[in-house]
Design a protein that fits this description.
- 10% of the residues lie in helices and 54% in strands.
- By secondary structure, the chain is mainly beta.
- It folds into 2 domains: 115 residues, Porin (Beta Barrel); 109 residues, no CATH class.
- It has an 8-stranded antiparallel barrel. It has a 4-stranded antiparallel β-sheet with strand order 10-11-12-13, with no helix packed on it. A 4-stranded antiparallel β-sheet has the order 14-15-16-17, with no helix packed on it.
- β3 and β4 form a beta hairpin.
- The longest helix has 13 residues.
- It is globular.
Length: 252
């Protein structure tokens, strides 16, 4: 828990005291890498160290989110995949102290208003990438949601991934519910709803949007923490998996 709190503080400091709201610009896509169907979500922002875009994608048949980071130039994007926890902490949580190098990164995309095309390469393997834009979220102005916005959070367990459903409510844009999706079968097995009413703060802490749900382990149990905007560094609500009920329950 201490590591999770420190990570959140480091992100807030690294972003230099920007306003709490009004910085999410996210585009969601679906399509394929080679013959494999995928879903991909990208947030554009100046994250520092030359990182202009971060994201999350998964192969539909695996349902395991893969964190992404990279650069953009005009309509071109070069995106790198995070390969392990150490790299995740160094680049996405703490932040690199030197400009990132995207040479040899897997995804090269040319983005248009309707989608993106490009290639995925690793070693001697290269596959075409074809994507269609399906939804978008932009709260950098008055607040706009286009389509059904589902955010594939980086947090996951061996069995489940977690998706945030973002909605433009009367109080602004926020996550109104979190879906627990069983990786085997890609089925929604639980939905946790949030009553924000006048506040609308669930899933809106000033981190990359994909980090608004985090996973950590306590006494051998998976704990899922949902971030809320407010109170300086924000607040969290923790959920612990109950094996008997086969669902996540809020920590009391």
């Amino acid at each position: 828990m201490a590591g999770r709190f420190i990570s959140a503080i480091l992100i807030l400091l690294a972003l230099g005291g920007q306003a709490v709201a009004g910085w999410y610009h996210v585009e969601n896509y679906q399509g394929s890498i080679g013959s494999h169907p995928i879903h991909l979500s990208l947030q554009t922002y100046d994250f520092g160290s030359g990182i202009m875009v971060e994201g999350s994608y998964f192969y539909d048949d695996r349902q395991s989110p893969i964190p992404l980071y990279g650069k953009l130039s005009g309509t071109g994007m070069v995106l790198c995949e995070i390969s392990d926890e150490k790299q995740f902490q160094r680049i996405l949580v703490i932040g690199s102290k030197t400009p990132i190098d995207t040479a040899g990164c897997a995804l090269n995309l040319d983005v248009t208003t309707g989608g993106a095309t490009g290639s995925w390469s690793q070693g001697t393997e290269t596959y075409p990438v074809i994507l269609t834009r399906v939804a978008g979220l932009d709260d950098t102005g008055e607040g706009k949601i286009d389509g059904s916005v589902e955010i594939p959070f980086w947090a996951q367990t061996a069995n489940d991934r977690f998706a945030g459903i973002y909605t433009n409510t009367s109080a602004g844009i926020c996550m109104t519910k979190m879906q627990v999706i069983r990786k085997h079968g890609a089925k929604v097995v639980q939905e946790i709803t949030f009553r924000d009413d006048d506040v609308c703060s669930a899933g809106m802490l000033m981190t990359p949007i994909y980090m608004n749900v985090e996973k950590w382990i306590e006494h051998g149990k998976d704990v899922i923490s949902v971030n809320f905007r407010g109170g300086g560094a924000g607040t969290t609500i923790d959920y612990i998996f109950d094996p008997a009920a086969r669902k996540y329950r809020q920590r009391q």
